[in-house]
């Protein structure tokens, strides 16, 4: 088990290192931050001075080594545009983003999983078809379209909720619903598929044939076995809590990490972009790590194989 | 030391709890919210740094210049923080300062504040105003130091290329002195770079950045809170010399999506929605509670050429570009006819400098094909670096242009870019890009020279260089012979728009602001929004 954990941890660290490296290289190949931060009005000598001050005149390799070394020492750099620590800028925005993504996650799980289970248990019924039609609509409609549609109905026509901005819980309703609906649709479809696959297994028929009540079969045999793919999707959703609302934050003018990311990318504010991507990578990797552990809890066969030393 | 007795303390506490009519009375003035795409680009409110269309929208609320411009009326210069001005000679303007003007920190404006506002602390850095001399405050654009970041002296030099000094003649009277003769000094003084700030306010700011995010000006509203990339809250400054402001509070809030701005207006959250697209106007005005105001402003959209590109070195190819554009089609199809094709890079408010008989190159595809044939152009690709709708209708305009150019045989390929840094990047071939030019005062120096002259952005980024044009540009800036200046300007237009095109004008810019119909408010012929008492009513 320890070996399994160590392997997973090593993989997680490698993934984070790769993300950091990729972000570092791509950002530096996609535009000169000196021109963007200093503006095109700045005289050439000023632009050069800026590059020198930020180490942008050094070779890419030297910059990379310094950057990586700084990360290892807990220094995520300073914003070239704002002058403050990048982590401070990002940390200021995280609560706003979580105020959207956490309730949205609750909606996704709270609606998507029960809907998927219900549809699977009533396969080919009218309810199943209605649920699946809504699910298909839910994840095929882009979030910016859904967001604008909700605004038109609930803000412009009915006047019940604000169309954007922040400040009160009412401002969060439409963006949370916009985020939640798409995710709930995805979860409903995955849960339904997983349940249908499990319900077709011989051990379900055996349990039923032995006279186990249907609700007990579902609860005791079908749900735990169908949970693995659902947990995997939920893991991805948890991993995208920090930067999973970029489009929705733009549509609803919500001052979260997503909008900061858009502005930072547009201005090539390297430290801020890298800081956000690093946090996203850490969140995603951590979430997947937890999901891996949950697999063992959900499936005794995996638990036993890990205890036996399989990686 | 004064002894605080129990009786005195009780009396003080009682006094604090008693109703005070002046303070207890609620401020009945309205507070409004204005949805904008961006409040400012640089995340500063210092106009010597924030030289953008969006920034010029908000600055008039909190800052003023010595000489004002009648942006809503006839665009003429009018008294601002100076009540009068007069020419001493070709290089000198003397100004009488308005008495009793207060800054937002309560200080009375003095001649020393004016000198500070045009001085090294605010504009030039420790190197002074000599070309090339800059002091780098910090690598984070002034985050820590007190000196202005390097782009500020660059902007100042471009705005006041001949600036020598500003001096106090006597209390209440200052002189703006140029090194060289300049008939446009008054117009330059009226530019927003010359906003008058409080010397004490600057001294007390922790850093240049702190000042730039909360400048202490004299405008009708003071900066209450500025959250970069989010919003700007302004509060009424009741000691404003021009009378009590009509609004208690103005909040400019960033709403990047145009549809979201309009939705917020229609749902009642915003009172104004700026940068409305022309195709949204009909839908907005279908609701009788709202209207769209605004029209053409003193800004033209241009296509700019990099004459160093192998396909564009031959002026005949660039001339072909200019003749193959049916500008009226763009105006009619994308702007619903709400803007116009101007007479080149000039505006009627130039007065005697306006060349009424000038026009943009005629739409003449046959002439364009002839020129391309003469130039031996073989259809080699010409890159067109494009931002995604930085300007209204920018992408759609570009697509129409590319098709028009294709009709005459020009193989122009759109190369989408994310930012201006990528537009100006010299590491790969540049050829065609978009731009807009404003006339910030009523003389061609403010546009054609400022943009395409030796100190202009186009030459600064290495796009083009025409020696005769440069000589004329300097002459236009320094000559005081008005008939001669008119001839010089004419020749500059001939070179830059016909003979050796540096750019070609597409159409005049129009800006549209949607608002509540019950608010009586007039849009300026510029991006600036005026919320003084003279321009407000409900």
CATH homologous superfamily heading of the largest domain in chain B = Periplasmic binding protein-like II
Query: How many H/I helical runs of chain B?
Result: 20
* Number of helical segments with 4 or more residues of chain A: 14
Quickly give the structural class of chain A. mainly alpha
**CATH classification class of the largest domain in chain B:** Alpha Beta
Q: What is the name of the CATH topology of the largest domain in chain B?
A: D-Maltodextrin-Binding Protein, domain 2
Kindly, what is the distance between the CA atoms of the first and last residues of chain B, rounded to a whole number of angstroms? Answer: 54 Å
Note poorly predicted spans of chain A. none
CATH class of the largest domain in chain A: Mainly Alpha
Radius of gyration of chain A: 24 Å
Protein name (chain B): ABC transporter substrate-binding protein
GO molecular function, one term (chain B): peptide transmembrane transporter activity
Signal peptide (chain B): 1-24
Domain Solute-binding protein family (chain B): 77-457
Give the arrangement of secondary structure elements.
The complex is a heterodimer of chains A (311) and B (538).
Chain A (H helix, E strand, L loop, with lengths): L1 H28 L3 H6 L5 H10 L6 H13 L13 H36 L4 H15 L2 H15 L11 H31 L2 H8 L4 H26 L6 H6 L5 H10 L3 H29 L1 H8 L4
Chain B lengths: L5 H12 L3 H4 L6 E6 L16 H10 L4 E3 L7 E3 L2 E8 L2 E6 L13 H7 L2 H5 L26 H9 L3 E8 L2 E6 L6 H5 L9 H6 L3 H6 L7 E7 L3 E6 L12 E6 L3 H9 L5 E2 L7 H5 L4 E4 L2 E10 L9 H9 L3 H8 L30 H11 L6 E6 L6 H15 L3 E6 L2 H5 L7 E7 L9 H5 L4 H4 L6 H12 L3 H18 L3 E8 L2 E4 L22
Parallel strand pairs in B: 1-10, 1-11, 14-15, 14-16
Antiparallel strand pairs in B: 2-3, 4-5, 5-7, 6-7, 8-9, 9-10, 11-18, 12-18, 13-16, 13-17
How would you briefly describe this protein structure?
The complex is a heterodimer of chains A (311) and B (538). Chain A is an all-alpha fold.
């Amino acid at each position: 088990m320890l070996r399994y954990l160590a392997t997973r941890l090593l993989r997680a660290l490698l993934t984070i290192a790769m993300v950091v490296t990729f972000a570092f290289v791509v950002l530096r190949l996609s535009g000169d931050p000196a021109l963007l931060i200093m503006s095109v009005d700045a005289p050439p000598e000023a632009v050069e001075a800026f590059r020198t001050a930020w180490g942008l005149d050094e070779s890419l390799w030297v910059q990379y080594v310094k950057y990586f070394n700084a990360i290892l020492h807990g220094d995520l750099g300073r914003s070239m545009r704002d002058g403050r620590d990048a982590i401070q800028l990002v940390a200021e925005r995280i609560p706003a983003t979580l105020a959207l993504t956490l309730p949205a996650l609750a909606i996704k799980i709270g609606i998507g999983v029960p809907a998927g289970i219900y549809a699977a248990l009533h396969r080919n019924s009218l309810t199943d078809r209605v649920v699946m039609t809504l699910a298909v609509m839910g994840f095929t409609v882009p979030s910016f379209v859904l967001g604008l549609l909700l605004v038109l109905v609930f803000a412009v026509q009915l006047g019940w909720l604000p169309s954007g901005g922040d400040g009160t819980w009412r401002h969060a309703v439409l963006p949370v619903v916009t985020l939640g609906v798409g995710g709930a649709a995805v979860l409903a479809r995955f849960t339904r598929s997983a349940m249908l696959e499990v319900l077709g297994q011989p051990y379900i028929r055996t349990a039923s044939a032995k006279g186990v009540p249907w609700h007990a079969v579902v609860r005791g045999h079908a749900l735990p076995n169908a949970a693995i793919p659902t947990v995997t999707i939920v893991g991805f959703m948890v991993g995208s809590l920090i930067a999973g609302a970029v489009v929705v934050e733009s549509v609803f003018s919500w001052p979260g990490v997503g909008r900061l990311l858009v502005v930072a990318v547009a201005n090539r504010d390297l430290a801020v972009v890298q800081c956000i991507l690093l946090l996203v990578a850490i969140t995603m990797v951590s979430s997947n790590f937890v999901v891996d552990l949950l697999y063992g809890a959900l499936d005794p066969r995996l638990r036993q194989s890990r205890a036996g030393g399989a990686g | 030391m004064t002894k605080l007795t129990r009786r005195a303390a009780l009396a003080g506490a009682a006094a604090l709890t008693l109703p005070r009519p002046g303070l207890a009375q609620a401020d009945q003035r309205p507070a409004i919210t204005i949805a904008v795409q961006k409040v400012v680009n640089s995340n500063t409110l210092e106009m010597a740094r924030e030289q953008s269309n969006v920034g010029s929208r908000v600055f008039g609320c909190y800052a003023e210049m010595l000489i004002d411009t009648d942006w809503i009326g006839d665009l003429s210069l009018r008294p601002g923080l100076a009540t009068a001005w007069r020419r001493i000679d070709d290089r000198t303007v003397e100004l009488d300062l308005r008495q009793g003007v207060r800054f937002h920190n309560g200080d009375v404006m003095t001649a020393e504040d004016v000198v500070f506002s045009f001085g090294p602390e605010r504009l030039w850095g420790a190197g002074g105003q000599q070309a090339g001399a800059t002091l780098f405050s910090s690598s984070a654009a002034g985050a820590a130091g007190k000196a202005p970041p390097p782009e500020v002296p660059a902007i100042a030099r471009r705005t006041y290329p001949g600036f020598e000094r500003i001096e106090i003649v006597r209390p209440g009277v200052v002189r703006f002195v140029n090194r060289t003769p300049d008939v446009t000094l008054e117009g330059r003084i009226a530019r927003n770079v010359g906003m008058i700030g409080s010397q004490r306010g600057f001294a007390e700011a922790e850093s240049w950045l702190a000042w730039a995010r909360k400048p202490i000006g004299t405008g009708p509203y003071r900066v209450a809170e500025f959250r970069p990339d989010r919003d700007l809250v302004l509060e009424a400054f009741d000691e404003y010399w021009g009378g009590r402001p009509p609004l208690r509070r103005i909040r400019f809030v960033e709403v990047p999506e145009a549809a979201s701005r309009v939705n917020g207006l229609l749902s009642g959250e915003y009172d104004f929605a700026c940068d409305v697209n022309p195709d949204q106007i009909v839908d907005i005005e279908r609701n009788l509670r709202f209207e769209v105001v605004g029209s053409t402003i003193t800004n033209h959209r241009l296509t700019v050429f990099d004459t160093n590109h192998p396909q564009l070195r031959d002026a005949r190819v660039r001339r072909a570009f200019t003749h193959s554009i049916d500008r009226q089609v763009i105006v009619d199809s994308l702007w619903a006819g709400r803007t116009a094709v101007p007479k080149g890079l000039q505006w009627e408010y130039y007065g005697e400098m306006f060349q009424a008989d000038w026009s943009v190159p005629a739409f003449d595809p046959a002439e364009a094909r002839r020129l391309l044939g003469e130039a031996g152009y073989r259809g080699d690709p010409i890159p067109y670096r494009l931002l995604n709708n930085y300007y209204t209708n920018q992408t759609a305009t570009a697509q129409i242009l590319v098709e028009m150019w294709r009709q005459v045989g020009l193989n122009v390929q759109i190369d989408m870019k994310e930012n201006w840094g990528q537009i100006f990047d010299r590491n790969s071939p540049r050829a065609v890009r978009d731009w807009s030019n404003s006339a910030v005062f009523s003389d061609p120096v403010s546009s054609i020279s400022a943009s395409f002259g030796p100190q202009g952005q186009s030459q600064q980024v290495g796009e083009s260089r025409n020696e005769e044009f440069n000589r004329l540009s300097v002459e236009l800036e320094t000559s005081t012979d008005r008939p001669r200046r008119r001839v010089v300007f004419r020749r500059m237009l001939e070179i830059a728009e016909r003979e050796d095109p540096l750019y070609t004008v597409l159409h005049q810019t129009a800006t549209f602001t949607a608002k509540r119909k019950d608010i009586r408010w007039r849009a300026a012929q510029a991006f600036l929004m005026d919320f003084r008492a003279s321009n407000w009513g409900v």
